[in-house]
Amino acid sequence: MPTHQTASTTSMLRVMNERAVFGEIFRLGPVSRPELAQATGLSKPTISVALSNLGRAGLVREVGLRAGPAGRSALLYEARPEAGWVLAVDIGRAFVRLVLADLAGTIVARIDHPSGSPHPTDLLPQLTELADRLTAQVGIARADVTLAVFGTPGIHDKETGALHLAPNLPGWDQPGAVDRFTAVSPSPFLVENDVDLAAVGEATYGLGREVAHFAYVSIGTGTGMGIVIDGKLYRGSRGCAGEISYLPIGEGDPLQDDPTAARRGMFETVASADGIVAAARRLGWAGATSAKEVFDAARAGEPTARRAVQVEVNHVAHALAAVTAVLDLELIVLGGGVGVQGGDLLIGPVQDRLHHLVALQPPRIEVSTLGADAVLIGAVAVGVTAARDLVLDRTVAATG
């Protein structure tokens, strides 16, 4: 019985073919038509049609020839990186960091700036001004950005537009607060948990590249965890997976002793940078002012600082033992200011404690190689994937 393709079916197949070819060009780099046919399973005539359409849309270009057997040369194609732009923003307590990347994921401009007031009425104008400066560096406007990705603490409630569990960002827990990012990005935007983005960064460019099951644990001004299971970010039913700040691990019951602990969480209260300073003061170093100061003194052999670090080791080890028992991970990557600055003091002792706290072989623990850029790198990775789809969708909409 003959089959008849409708116009909509034909259009859908064309879009699917172009999407497959576009994706493989990014994955393979400069590539020939035969290589694309082999990678996609599409016929060479179908590849030629897709390349022609993508070329007319300004998404793909010819980049030269590659010598082949018997003197035959193959024409090579690559995606045009400047066909789209991604704005990535990391909103931290001390700094806001912005980068602009092209569709290849290459960062072409960057601005790091001290944070002002985190309240929306103050932060949004600051981000808008910085985004204008950033895009001007490459000769485009904010409106030319294909997609923006904002990395923030807490959980984005998509129903109300509020940020929950982000005590360091006052005012963002109000309904509709997240929607106000349109002031910064007139283009589509995503709001993602910063630690989840850091986990994506590690999975794409860092220590998690060849690891199917790992977690990125951030310890700094706050605490959090991004979870990768079977190579994919795990969010949980409400996007709250990894909120280890609220693990019941601490000194006695700080939820009863300290009213702020209920808002920050028991583990974060004792294990964050502030918690390390509090431990040092409690142990007799009344003048301790920062976690970095405690770590530096511990490296120099100062006894009180060394005891404060041991307290941190115990807190972190117990938290990671709980994580290990539930998730059975291969790797835990430590990040955040405390995780990176104090990694040399924490990794070995925490690993030793885990051997006594868990029944089976514990995961290996390593310090992030991405440092303070983990969130931005993850935001670029997420943004580039989505932006490529957007530019292709816009092309389809324009051509019918």
UniProtKB/TrEMBL annotation:
SUPFAM superfamilies: Actin-like ATPase domain, Winged helix' DNA-binding domain. The keyword Membrane does not apply. GO terms for molecular function: kinase activity. Keywords: Kinase, Transferase. It holds the Pfam family ROK. InterPro entries: ATPase_NBD, ROK, WH-like_DNA-bd_sf, WH_DNA-bd_sf. PANTHER family: BIFUNCTIONAL UDP-N-ACETYLGLUCOSAMINE 2-EPIMERASE_N-ACETYLMANNOSAMINE KINASE (PTHR18964:SF149), ROK (REPRESSOR, ORF, KINASE) FAMILY (PTHR18964). Belongs to the ROK (NagC/XylR) family. This is Putative NBD/HSP70 family sugar kinase.
